[in-house]
Amino acid sequence: MCGIVGYIGKEDSKEILLRGLEKLEYRGYDSAGIAVANENGVHVFKEKGRIASLRESVDANVVAPVGIGHTRWATHGVPSKVNSHPHQSSSQRFTLVHNGVIENYDHIKRDYLQGVTFQSETDTEVVVQLIEKFVKEGQGVEEAFRGALKLLKGSYAIGLLDEQNPDIIFVAKNKSPLLVGLGEGFNVVASDAMAMIQVTNQYVELIDKEIVIVTRESVTIKNLEGTVVERAPYTAELDMSDIEKGTYPHYMLKEIDEQPLVIRKIISNYQNENGELTVDGDVRQAMVDTDRIYIIAAGTSYHAGLVGKQYIEKLAKIPVEVHISSEFSYNMPLLSEKPLFVFISQSGETADSRAVLVQVKEMGFKSLTITNVKGSTLSREADYTLLLHAGPEIAVASTKAYTAQISVLAILARDAARAKGIEVDFDLSKELGIVASVMETLCDDKEEMEQIAREYLATTRNCFFIGRGIDYYVGMEGALKLKEISYIQAEGFAGGELKHGTIALIEDGTPVISIATQEIVNLGIRGNVKEVVARGANPCIISMKGLEEADDRYVVPAVHELLTPLVSVIPVQLISYYAALHRECDVDKPRNLAKSVTVE
Ligand code: M6R
Fold first, then answer.
1. Where is the Glutamine amidotransferase type-2 domain (predicted)?
2. Cα-flanking dihedrals φ and ψ of residue 65, to 5°?
């Protein structure tokens, strides 16, 4: 979603800001802008569309050592040049970029800003107008900034320039991520360390409701009352090669291929000296103490949660409910006496999940976040964290995070079973090792996946994924993958449920991709395939060695029956990738989507 960068130093800021914004492109956006300040004033450049268009519009003759930049994903007002950030106050003295949503922006307009002419339809513009109003009334800029922030309800990460003092970037944060990066003779601001990792790996984390006064030489953090807060920087463990595509045409393909390595990294990160896969003692204790687990997640992470429920219930015998985070807040089920909330989130920044975390913390319940991003909001705010060790996931379509989430959930379940004295008759470490090898074989079979995509999905309008039990959840993930990047209408269904309505949609040639990796439901799913074939469907069965039949389109090598989602998802990811490619879709940055959904 929206991204923020800022630079204050001695070099011209334009290129640093534009490069930073390019690093944030993966998050999804529809317009972008920068504002740079020099002795001649503040110069604003913004454009609807890609950063490449913004680049073209930037005046190369303007040289300025201070600036802020923004990628916008529209929430209030259509994607347009006028609605894109930075926004300026009426006198153009103040220039501001903002991530998040100001929930009470219309009340602020009504109560404080009557008579002000607004240029944009955004919620953001009230903030910059409010600061100007307070300054005009006689307040100092910092005081006006803090005063304005105190009135805001909602989420914000803000960068502010004052034309009359271009030696400062004012920064603030509440619920939306924002970091300050430290350099020699310069400092930077970024909503994600990835944006500025090329200039520094030293970052200071900001806590909600803090402001920061950033100059070339100093970074001063204060709370909203003006009291200075001391905080040591940390080193961002990001490797440039992790965030570059290398020789791959798309991040998605690179990330699919990284999955065997990720599984091996997870094994080595969670293995103890006895070779057992374990989690921290306090997480284990929380698992032992709880009487019911509530998994909260969105999108792909929700699908991983559905698989995780099977693991925790089957291995550790703890009841689990899996909930979509955006539904949970206002539709909370009756909770058990000792609930444990498990948040699954690649980014650790998903606002819908965070809203639930805030709620359950207020209720006094324990929480665990399973995330790929150390130090992310959900990680910081939960009681415990388990990391995915998947490396940065940049493509909007989540792939390696999904398999990492499932692996970590398996480890969590296995560890809880051990702690509760429940016998588990397989060696998870060994079985995950087999999974990694099978994943490699599957990733090497790209030509076949491309052929399947061409055969079934080149021209189709819609597609169904069916499965039973754990295969159904992989089907849901397959449908999400396909629709988000290829725009083919795709749905994942429980095989047995089709005949209760959805089978009416099957026409001559409708592709039905069926996942068949579970012995217990093998006959059932094959019966469901016959039902759709009888109505004209074009069946594509992805089965597992040992359960295969003559007409199966693709057979994946056998792995432990609980771990099949880790391998059956790979053909599905690759088929979706090639379908999107054939349709000339923007694979890594699908329309309307953002990588990290930081607004509710
Ligand atoms: O960062 P999170 O895991 O919390 O994100 C949740 C969803 O937004 C995400 O999984 C989304 O569904 C992906 N684009 C799917 O590929």
1. 2-217
2. -90, 10
Instruction: Tell me, yes or no, if 463 is annotated catalytic.
Output: no
Domain 445-587 coded CATH 3.40.50.10490: yes
Domain locations along the chain = 3-238, 246-443, 445-587
Q: How far is the CA of 98 from the centre of ligand 1 (A)?
A: 22
Distance from Cα 597 to the centre of ligand 1, integer Å? 8
Q: Is 270 left (phi over 0), alpha (psi -120 to 50) or beta?
A: alpha
Write out the CATH class of domain 3-238.
Answer: alpha beta
Q: Report which protein residue has its CA nearest ligand 1's atom 11.
A: 299
> Which atom of ligand 1 is least distant from the CA of 353?
4
Confidence band of 1 (pLDDT split at 50, 70, 90): low
pTM over 0.85: no
Cα 506 from Cα 508, distance rounded (Å): 7
Q: How far is the CA of 155 from the centre of ligand 1 (A)?
A: 20
Residue identifier of the C-alpha nearest atom 14 of ligand 1? 397
**Residue 173 annotated as catalytic:** no
15-33 pLDDT per residue, tens: 999 999 998 887 778 899 9
Please tell me the CATH code under which domain 246-443 is placed. 3.40.50.10490
